[in-house]
Amino acid sequence: MASSWVPDIDPASDFSLANIPFGIISTPDDPAPHAAVAIGSYALDLKVLTANPDLSSQLFPSIPNLPEAFAQPTLNTFAELGRPIHRQVRTALQNLLSTTTAHPSLLRDNPTLRARALLPQSAVRTHLPMAIGDYTDFYAGYHHAFAVGAMFRGPDAALQPNYLHLPVGYHGRASSIVVSGTPVRRPVGQILLDGKPEPVTAPSRKLDIELELGCFVARGNEMGRGIAVGEAEEYIFGYVLLNDWSARDVQTWEYVPLGPFNGKNFASTVSPWVVLADALEPFRAKGVEVEGRPEVQGYLREGRAESVFDVRLEVDLTTAEGDTTTIGRTSSKHLIWSFPQMLAHHTLGGCPMRSGDLLGSGTISGPGGVDERGSLLEMTENGKKEVLLAGMDARTFLKDGDTVTLRGFCGEEGARVGFGECRGRIYSALQK
Amino acid sequence: MASSWVPDIDPASDFSLANIPFGIISTPDDPAPHAAVAIGSYALDLKVLTANPDLSSQLFPSIPNLPEAFAQPTLNTFAELGRPIHRQVRTALQNLLSTTTAHPSLLRDNPTLRARALLPQSAVRTHLPMAIGDYTDFYAGYHHAFAVGAMFRGPDAALQPNYLHLPVGYHGRASSIVVSGTPVRRPVGQILLDGKPEPVTAPSRKLDIELELGCFVARGNEMGRGIAVGEAEEYIFGYVLLNDWSARDVQTWEYVPLGPFNGKNFASTVSPWVVLADALEPFRAKGVEVEGRPEVQGYLREGRAESVFDVRLEVDLTTAEGDTTTIGRTSSKHLIWSFPQMLAHHTLGGCPMRSGDLLGSGTISGPGGVDERGSLLEMTENGKKEVLLAGMDARTFLKDGDTVTLRGFCGEEGARVGFGECRGRIYSALQK
């Protein structure tokens, strides 16, 4: 991969020329949200870039509707154009931004356009990248499912009988998905205190995170017609980090028999830049292998073993005093089901996907110690042990004023494919 | 209530002058979906009616944006205007359509406009009335929850410990909600056959219905701010019938520990005409009272006892041969939680509602025999007994070719407030 002429790209930047993730920004000159890509510490404004028809047709020949797509307040229209178009556009942008660009006069040597189209990320605001019709959260993080199951039912009954046969998942709440940086109010809910049988209504005392990979659907299937696992990659737009904030005490009381509800629907945070499926292709890995696992049903059988991605994931907790501790490090390879398998299962009965639908992987934890876990529930054994923090502090669950930042990246310095930050700060349930 | 000059209104019509439900239609002259109300066997085209600015301002003084709202392909914009506006518009339409109308020249005595605006329902197509952001299904049908719980856990443990304390609910799938008349494909899914521990992938053998009342949200709350139970009525637009089709065998295998998923997300059918909250006001009733019930939490306490509605509900099953049997009769008063309580609980932790969100009551069954049940699961004790049908036929669960029609209405003949039909026909999982 060549390098980029864009100035000052840190070798550790998530947004190298090898990445080119798509997002939605508003700018001082144009407050209407519209499309951009991230490169180094800059955002390249795609609405500005494609506003000139000559330049647009030279850069993206034979994709006439791109200017309209990039002027939209979400990426759904672009996503629906399909993976061959995403690939073509990403490649053209990599060429445009490369030191070896075939078109230096278009942008690199065009100071007027550069000043308008290439903006410091610090000068733009990012927005939710997609209009999310439905959000589904799976439970494909094997070590998380095992650890949580063992905690409540013991190691011999840790996994439910269906777990190795199908990607267990549930319908989440789309309306409360927010973009990184949005503050998160501690939810009030019904909880049981001190083992008493009658609930109280109070702010959650077990506010937790869930470290997940999120997958945005590019285009939908016809209702009644499933998506074959072998074709599912063509329905995937790209990936984000996802923090599925959870109120464990609310969830414990409410979830029988129909699953999580208010314990989850107060907020879920996604990172703003969608890493295209193509950008992750070089980082394929095998998912979790379980000895003696029964053969999966035919509709879930994939043609390749390397069906997940090895994204290095980290969780930072920053206290109100400003001390930051990395409390978890793991990888997105610790999934037992791939996103194509999740899509094939989700649509097996005919459920229609739509462009912009979000699938969550479920919490991702590694097989090792507590520092490989994607939730405080696991790190603290449901509040029994403390996680030690910088600044002589410690946590069982989150305190008001805490900021949680998820990070994730693949690849070597100088050619990293990363997600940037997925960040949220907790504020008090009682704040007016 | 006066009667209407609209011709040939059957006294048994659900759409008397006392009702005036809103829907979305397309017509031979205007294939773009837009707003209408139902009156007798006619649809009054509100886009045509309000296209003339003079007439619109005479009919609806001081609501200048109605023509735009009624030209939309969904009722969301109209719903967001709020209940005082819905009330004003419904009252004006009742006046316009009444034999005692103050404005006979506007429509009754205007044959040109009548021919264009007042169309037989048989000549128009109805569409999904709202763009549904999120769909939540509750479990507030007390006798259903008790009967199903008793079936699987015995009568002493029929209700889970949380059931009397909070409106149990789960997030459903919005993308597979369809309007009455849409055919429903029998879903394929993973099921356990004959008690074997390993699943097979096959068409569901336990395809069922769920008789529910659906509630559309008028307008949203700010994220992080709940809706007080006493204010929740102002957030309600209106009601429809809802058939939450269920594949019981798929659900049984998949639902632990995160709740129903593919057993539900293949289709849910709603009736096309939204009965406004105001139209149901005269039919308030007390919900289910349970002896020894613990006092509910403060945020769920309502100012009035009559917090639900007594809508008479019926379920018809029509075989492929055309024989129709009414297999269930009950009332929507058999709820233990009201929709305001559901809204207050749903938003307790700050979850944002949006205009068009759909809340399902959960299956509604009466306290009596099997003919008062809202699901075949209950009527047949999970397939152990048969429901006898006209035409020497019988069912445990649905067969391909079966049509299920839900009906519901309040009030006396000549002044009925009803929902029309919520209908769906099952076709084979194997059909190409």
Description of the molecule:
Two copies of one chain form a homodimer. With 432 residues, the first copy, chain A, is α+β, with helices and mostly antiparallel strands. Chain A folds into two domains: 22-127, Fumarylacetoacetase, N-terminal domain (SH3 type barrels, Roll); 135-427, Fumarylacetoacetate hydrolase, domain 2 (Alpha-Beta Complex), CATH 3.90.850. In chain A, 19% of the residues lie in helices and 26% in strands. Chain A contains eleven helices and 26 strands. In chain A, the strands form seven sheets. In chain A, strands 6, 7, 8, 13, 14, 16, 17 and 22 form an eight-stranded mixed sheet that branches. In chain A, strands 4-3-2-1-5 form a five-stranded antiparallel sheet. In chain A, strand 10 and strand 11 (200-203) form a beta hairpin. Chain A is globular and about 70 Å long. Chains A, B: Belongs to the FAH family. Chains A, B: Residues 18-129 form the Fumarylacetoacetase N-terminal domain. Chains A, B: Ca(2+) binds at residues 137, 210, 212, 244.
